[in-house]
Amino acid sequence: MALFNFRRKDEPAAAPLEAFLKGYSIEVMPRTAEKVDSLRDILPTGTRVYIAHIDGTPIEDMVATAARVTAEGYSAMPHFPARIIKDKATLTDWVARYKDVGVRQGLLLAGGVAQPVGDFATSMQLLESGAFTGFDRLHVAGHPEGNKDIDPDGSDRMVMEAARWKSAFMDRTDAQMAMATQFCFEAQPVIDWVNRLQAEGVKLPVHIGIAGPAKLQTLIKFAIACGVGPSLRVLQKRAMDVTKLLLPYEPTEVLADLAAHKAANPGFGIEQVHFFPLGGIKTNAQWVTDNGGASGVPANAEKV
After folding, report:
1. Which fold has domain 17-290?
2. What is the dihedral of CA 210, 216, 218, 220, to 10 degrees?
3. What are the Cα distances from residue 220, in Å, to 32, 136, 249, 286, 294?
4. Which one of the record's GO molecular function terms can you name (predicted)?
5. Domain segments of the chain: what residues?
């Protein structure tokens, strides 16, 4: 059970970055989670742990990881990639298996494969399936720099239309929802995108994706593979500086800029930070702890 960390009246308020990191989430895969002996040693109690479902991963491995995450005191949020789910019977089976080990949250997304293997192609179809009765929270994917798989012309017309649909779904149901985004390396495009969502009437809170500390070469490889947009130039510029080429990348600058904007604009639509630990879970968790992310009460932890 989490307890409040009380601050004396004469103590300064939390720095913007520390406040911004509070309640952060992090992503694992079954094979990467196996490398961590105990999540309790590195993550604050109550942290939401997304479990990425890569095509080819057996559902048994996914459920076993979710069971372990839940047993250690964390909120497991497995991915449900629409395009690798054969049919509603398969989806219903997956949901039942997860519920049996205490899972009540899921990230619904189209998935990274080009062609659907069965009946589902979009997260919207998953939302409409009715299969998630009994789940407390359903997250969907967001794309601050667009998605060329969805909008090949380079616009964000279809992406924005989908965001409006998902927001309307939240409004007409009792679903607790948020939009977990692709990772980015520059604050201003994110700020512009979040503001545009609000202008378009999209009410989904944003959980902004951030790549954790990692080797520059590793980040560039993942960024290209995942279709990261113009903010990739931050890494490319760094790669051209010989003095920085061999140094590990840390997300300090982009997070500090976003935190400062949130502090100055409390109504800004980013609710939490979501980390992709591309340089390792332990490395990412230690960086967050060093920057204040472990202090205070996580947003999704029990309070007394």
Report:
1. TIM Barrel (3.20.20)
2. 70
3. 20, 35, 10, 22, 28
4. oxidoreductase activity
5. 17-290
